[in-house]
């Protein structure tokens, strides 16, 4: 394992609060991704970044925001506008967008 | 838009039996296809990709463009194969993967 880390492992948030999930990689990968994993729905892409200082919306970007100020870091903010934020969030990185993606251990977010 | 379908959410077989996890896709061009696997308490990881034509852990997958399928097969399932399997696709000129819904495989002793 190693190489790509996510923190925290578990996160609890009250309704109406924004929360930021951390994703760091030391693999020197250009591309990074955020997915949401829900039972029976597979992995759905929230945002991705092909290179530092650039990112694109995925399929379910509403209520989320990201930044890519450093190559190693791609934090995800779950805003209060996200209607159903309780989920398991996975971060991944790859050398470029056509290569194998390496996944982090995930963060389980629960909104109370 | 491309789409990946895994028709079976759950699949259960006995140890030593053949197993086939189905994956169908819709895309008009020439896609690149992958199988990712997530074992219990482990990270999601790449199992195989069609361009490498490798057999990984006894699994193989053949791209059938006529049937737009990329089924994952293993002739003799083992208990350690129990996991969640995801099929994924990237377009020829694409920049992102599209995942299927996943199939939870259970291999019973």
Note the beta-strand portion of chain B.
35-45%
Helix/strand class of chain B: mainly beta
- Mean pLDDT over all positions of chain A: 93
Structural class of chain A: mainly beta
Structure description:
The complex is a heterodimer of chains A (112) and B (109). Chain A starts with a strand and ends with a strand. In chain A, the strands form two sheets. In chain A, strands 2, 4, 5, 6, 9, 10 and 11 form a seven-stranded mixed sheet that branches. Chain A contains no helices and eleven strands. Chain A is globular. By secondary structure, chain A is mainly beta. Chain B has 109 residues and is mainly beta. Chain B is 0% helix and 43% strand. Chain B contains no helices and eleven strands. Chain B has strands at residues 3-5, 10-14, 19-21, 24-26, 32-38, 45-49, 60-61, 72-74, 83-90, 98-99, 103-108. In chain B, the strands form three sheets. In chain B, strands 2, 5, 6, 9, 10 and 11 form a six-stranded mixed sheet that branches. A three-stranded antiparallel sheet of chain B has the order 3-8-7, with no helix packed on it. Chain B is globular, with a radius of gyration of 13 Å. The model of chain B has no long low-confidence stretch (mean pLDDT 91). Classes of the chains: A mainly beta (112), B mainly beta (109).
């Amino acid at each position: 394992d190693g190489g790509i880390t996510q923190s925290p492992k578990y996160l609890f948030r009250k309704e109406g609060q924004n929360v930021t999930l951390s994703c760091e990689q030391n693999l020197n990968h250009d591309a990074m991704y955020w997915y949401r994993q829900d039972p029976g729905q597979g992995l759905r892409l929230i945002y991705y970044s092909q290179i530092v200082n650039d990112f694109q919306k995925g399929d379910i970007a509403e209520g989320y925001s990201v930044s890519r100020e450093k190559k190693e870091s791609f934090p995800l903010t779950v805003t209060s506008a996200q209607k159903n934020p309780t989920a398991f969030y996975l971060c991944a990185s790859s050398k470029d967008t056509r290569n194998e993606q390496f996944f982090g251990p995930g963060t389980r977010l629960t909104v109370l | 838009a491309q789409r990946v379908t895994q028709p079976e959410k759950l699949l259960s077989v006995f140890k030593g039996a053949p197993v086939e996890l189905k994956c169908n896709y819709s895309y008009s061009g020439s896609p690149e296809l992958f199988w990712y696997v997530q074992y219990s308490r482990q990270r999601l990881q790449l199992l195989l990709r069609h361009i490498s034509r490798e057999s990984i852990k006894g699994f193989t997958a053949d791209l059938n463009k006529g049937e737009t399928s990329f089924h994952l097969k293993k002739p003799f399932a083992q208990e350690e194969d129990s996991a969640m399997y995801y099929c994924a696709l990237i377009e020829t000129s694409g920049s992102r993967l599209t995942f299927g819904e996943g199939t939870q495989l259970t291999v019973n002793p």
